[in-house]
Protein: Ribosomal RNA small subunit methyltransferase I
Organism: Parvularcula dongshanensis
Amino acid sequence: MTETPRRPSDDPLAPGLYVAATPIGNLGDASARLLDVLRRADGVLCEDSRVTGKLLSAFGIENRLQPYHDHNGARVRPGVLDRLRSGAALVLVSDAGTPLVSDPGYKLVREVRAAGLRVHAVPGPSAPLAALMVSGAPSDRFSFHGFLPRTQKARRDLFTSLGGRDETLLFFETAPRLASALSDLADALGPRTVSIARELTKRYEEVVEGEAAELAAAYEAAPPKGEIVLIVHPAEAAAPPDEESVDRQLREALRTHRVKDAAAFVAEATGLPRRGLYARAQALKDEG
């Protein structure tokens, strides 16, 4: 059951840490609740005060900004916890999108919860989810893996380790490395459909779909610009082998295996039901 939206208020927020999603490009995506929380909070924790300052300024909001990022997180967290224990309401935002998605915010949330303090969700824009929405890739099963590694070997190892999953894979990648990343993907996984979502919600939003190797060549010739999400579609299911091929595999297996074991061996290789293969293997054996 949903709650009726509350009107903006000058009353203090309930104490706790508010994890709030901000626009990924279009300021029109800022929710009324986000702006209300930013206005009423006792302070805002942000990656870059210049970026968040522009957001607040665009909506006429004034609040105290405190940098919180990878480089100062361990030093800043104790003071944040002290403020929350004293009853403060603080907002955690990233430069764009949903905090904790490829940023250090989860460490703060974990410590806040461990201290028995409240954590409130203020959901909203998310670049990986927005990319999935417009890509046309299967969305019933997917996983997000942050920024791709910088080195070729690490990228190829990652693609190889994930390539067998029956799900859509989402990554962040920088524009200068996109062509190399797609080339590594093609080398590791072979022909695979991918989508490139670029500059989502902005003026030059673009979604391109194609085979990894083809897009690698295209982006090598004309490097892209902007912020990019790489969507790797699941591998297409292989067509089932024809009867002649199955018989050939069964005959080969029967040369060194019993009927039961030959059927099991071919079932594992083809994905076909073992019972049907057993009956066919028995018939082939009887034929001699």
